[in-house]
Design goal:
The structure is a homodimer of 555-residue chains. The first copy, chain A, contains 15 helices and 26 strands. Chain A folds into 3 domains: 277 residues, Metallo-beta-lactamase, Chain A; 153 residues, Metallo-hydrolase/oxidoreductase (Rossmann fold, 3-Layer(aba) Sandwich); 90 residues, Ubiquitin-like (UB roll) (Roll). In chain A, strand 10 and strand 11 form a beta hairpin. By secondary structure, chain A is an alpha/beta fold. The N and C termini of chain A lie far apart (79 Å).
């Protein structure tokens, strides 16, 4: 029950209506806490953009109130926006040991490591941040040390699951905190914010151990070298690969920068168990008998510059895939990557490797719970209100149907967009005002300097290229002194289209003559005249619309 | 048995190692026949390209020998290249009635209809083309009137399946010609070229009738309007939608140009059965009670300009999706389209429609046979040699494993690339020489005028845009008379980056001064100098590499 006139507001700043850049703000009176600060990979139409982070204008405007950022786990869509966030808003960060280990690497790259206060938490922690008291519960996910938060507020307890599945036989022997979740439910939970990634998927997600069994089977039957690619952050799977390597008396080489980094951090922190001597340098791969070698690699999404793709194309400095090698791609394609991965698989088959991938075997399970697990979470927590998060709209919608099926009142479910707020006062929830939220695009070192106009130009340029038309006119009578010269980039290859460009030249000359004879002397009118006449001609001839940039000089 | 010194060559000019642009040449002595002339949709990196067709240099070089083109069915990946082919090589075309009906539409658009000889075939036809005698067998596929060919040559019989599945309960009551296939097998088949699309998929592909049942269920439970999107060429499915419309006493409006075209052609030719009065004009949709309306639409791939996408965004002229409507997306995403389709589904859910799509129900089955059907074809035909076609490399590979499992000698299997030839002489097959083959890119009206350089420029332009640097130098002393002016498109938005561009200006001025003082006077050296200095500065400041186009004038 509320003891004052204050209210609790929950404001998702990222991660709803989209996959990625997860971030949720909890506001009560003069206190704000933030859960997660993720990034998103660019949509297809965001040409040239490297990553996308949440717009945190709302937090900047309330900067004195922000008490800290709580991180659920170490995946990019939960930590990738953190360096940019901390540059604008240097507040304490709370995370488990492995999560902070991965964050440290990022902060070091951004020169922030010494400036930020990192606080290690465990599932025993109770974190007091202004009016908020946050306790921590363990979850299963595709990276170790994943947690969720129970956020006690004057209005009641909010359970924020973070990403989760229920793995009854977890590789790290660290089960979910069933008792804590059930106890929260028993005492009464005001609202549940729960992971919707697999809300469309019926049944249960299988245990990560299933993949371990498949890996063992593959190792048992491989006759020559084994090359296995998976997500660099899936340390459970990496542990099972190490276990299989040791069980079959093989040696393991690791290639790919993020794979080496993650294994190094995880091993230092004790999240990876490995016998001395298991690991070899990639240089040694070619010196050992083929049947002793396992190569663990990045590139399970077929990314063009990744280690696996380079090995498949024989452009990797140290390891090359050979006929008879067994290549295991232990992942499933992230939507949008299907074509890349197919190409890599084709390339590997062409070399003569035996390729094991998801379409024909079980070398991947999801890190997110399917429908029955989502219902189990709802049954444990028994929330009064439900806010599906971490998903595109249809997933949130489906998740809300699951919530209704477990007994949540349909009027107590909020499917929201980023920037929407849900307010709780006196035990009642309602939609509140909408706050600033959105995409901040990062291109190289630029944060937010690429906007719609630049993207629109990149789109135009990518479709039909550009023609630059250069001409010098006489100041006195407007006669053409030099040019027109037409320079084409990405439109047509000049040598193949001389006739077209010659005719284009004539059109420009005629147009300029006409404009001058009509005494048009505003620069913008002359440029538009040239652009229109030339554009019309080129469209007639080619059905293309290149960008046309007239450069008219006067001397 | 070969009676002369001649040999049979089979040359896939498209459709192997790729999905799309199917085309195979059969060569014997002075005779060539071609099966199919398809198009392919552009790969991601083919920026601005509309479609891709096979390179037919080999056929042009042997133009007097080409006796005709045989078409298996009316899908774009089998007929879409035909107009371009016929412009270069006007030979008779052979196809079933529906296939030719669809081809006629294309030829009309290209102004070719009166110039080309179209020959209707049925499964009773025997086509004599030089040394080749082609007979025709019926297949099941996701478009009616699909056939395959048995090509009798002096070396033996080749069976070319075309796209197929075995549908034991076909919607049009036209089963596959099992007896013909079995009879061919019994008499002896030299080689089988068979569809590999679903070679990775275990089991059987379900009958199209299953979709009809799902459609009926959806129609029975829908309370308001039904909007259903599917492939415009899947006339079996369209027939079942018409049947359901009539069964439930509803009216059908058709939207989307290709859907209207295909239904018109198919109805005229008798491939669609419909009661008078079933069809209504889209204008009438809003005049009828919601429960009487069915709208059949294109856009099942979420294509941005399609009717469904426009209806979802309320930008369609005649029909808008309303809360409570049932939207059925009766297709599965073609690889690469997943994101488009997800966005459309999300948009429809946001409107408040009830959306039925593949992830959660059975509104689509494939038109291609799965592994057991591919093995059935192999069992019927019992070929001596096997050439898997119509698939990316891994599919061909998997299909060849299936062939081995049915008893084909592994040494008698050829997995080939486009342009490879397989030669048969005296009953023996071997790999022959490699012929010219490849991608011809079509951009607007241009056929093959966009090559690697243009595509590379488009790629560069799409990533970081372009900077045009304009400066006028004095002919006498090289002093700068005007400029440098820097024009940015797709790099940064100028108003946001004034400082950066001012500094860039200074760099250009300094560089030019230095080059002039060093008496560098070759244009290319001056331009390269400016490009390098500016590029270096911009990369340091932004980590981006825009295209830089220096335009240096001398007066």
């Amino acid at each position: 029950m509320s003891k004052s006139n204050n209210k609790l507001s929950i404001i998702p700043l990222g991660g709803v209506g989209e996959i990625g850049k997860n971030m949720t703000a909890y506001v009560y009176g003069n206190d704000i806490i933030v859960v997660d600060a993720g990034l998103k990979f660019p949509e297809e139409e965001m040409l040239g953009i490297d990553i996308v982070i949440p717009d945190i204008t709302f937090l900047i405007e309330n900067r004195t109130k922000v008490r800290g950022v709580l991180i659920t786990h170490g995946h990019e869509d939960h930590i990738g926006g953190l360096p940019y966030f901390l540059k604008l808003l240097n507040v304490p960060v709370y995370g488990t040991r492995l999560t902070l280990g991965l964050i440290e690497g990022k902060l070091r790259e951004h020169g922030l490591l010494d400036l930020v206060k990192l606080n290690v938490i465990t599932n025993k922690s109770v974190i007091k941040l202004g009016e908020f008291t946050v306790s921590v519960f363990n979850n299963n996910h595709s990276i170790p040390d994943t947690v969720g938060f129970a956020i006690d507020t004057p209005e009641g307890v909010i359970v924020h699951t973070g990403d989760f599945k229920f793995d009854y036989t977890p590789v790290d022997g660290r089960p979910a905190d069933f008792f804590k979740l059930a106890e929260l439910g028993e005492k009464g939970v005001l609202a549940l914010l729960s992971d919707s990634t697999n809300a469309e998927r019926p049944g249960y997600t299988m245990s990560e151990r299933v993949v371990g069994q498949t890996i063992n089977d593959c190792f048992a039957s491989a006759e020559r070298r084994i090359i296995i690619a998976t997500f660099a952050s899936n340390l459970h799977r990496i542990q099972q690969i190490i276990d299989a390597t040791e069980k079959f008396g093989k040696k393991l080489a690791v290639v790919g920068r993020s794979m080496v980094n993650n294994i190094t951090i995880a091993h230092e922190l004790g999240y990876i168990r490995m016998n001395p001597g298991t690991l070899i340098d990639p240089d040694e791969v070619n010196k050992l008998p083929a049947e002793q070698v396992v190569v663990l690699s990045t590139g399970s999404q077929g990314e063009p510059m990744s280690a696996l793709t380079r090995m498949a194309r024989a452009t990797h400095r140290k390891v090359e895939v050979m006929p008879g090698d067994t290549v295991i791609i232990a992942s499933s394609p992230i939507p949008g990557n299907e074509k890349f991965i197919s190409r890599t698989i084709d390339q590997l088959f062409r070399i003569g490797a035996d390729v094991i991938y998801q379409a024909v075997s079980g070398v991947h399970v999801s890190g997110h719970g399917s429908q029955e697990e989502l219902k189990l979470m709802l049954n444990l927590v028994r929330p009064k209100y439900f806010i599906p998060v971490h998903g595109e709209y249809r997933m949130l919608k489906r998740h809300s149907e699951l919530a209704v099926s477990t007994g949540v009142d349909p009027d107590n479910i909020f499917i929201v967009d980023i920037g929407d707020s849900i307010e709780f006062q006196g035990g009642k929830g309602r939609l509140g005002p909408k706050y600033t939220a959105g995409n901040v695009l990062i291109d190289g070192l630029g944060v937010g300097d690429v906007g719609n106009i630049v993207l629109r130009d990149r789109k135009l340029l990518s479709q039909d290229g550009i023609l630059v038309v250069v001409v010098t006119l006489s100041k006195q009578d407007g006669a053409i002194l030099s040019g027109p010269d037409i320079i084409s980039r990405g439109f047509v290859y000049v040598r193949e289209s001389e006739e077209l460009l010659e005719e284009a030249n004539k059109i420009v000359t005629q147009t300029l003559g006409k404009l001058v004879s009509e005494n048009v002397n505003e620069w913008s009118s002359i440029k538009n005249g040239v652009r229109d006449a030339l554009g019309r001609y080129l469209y007639e001839q080619t059905r293309r619309r290149p960008m046309i940039l007239p450069i008219i000089m006067e001397v």
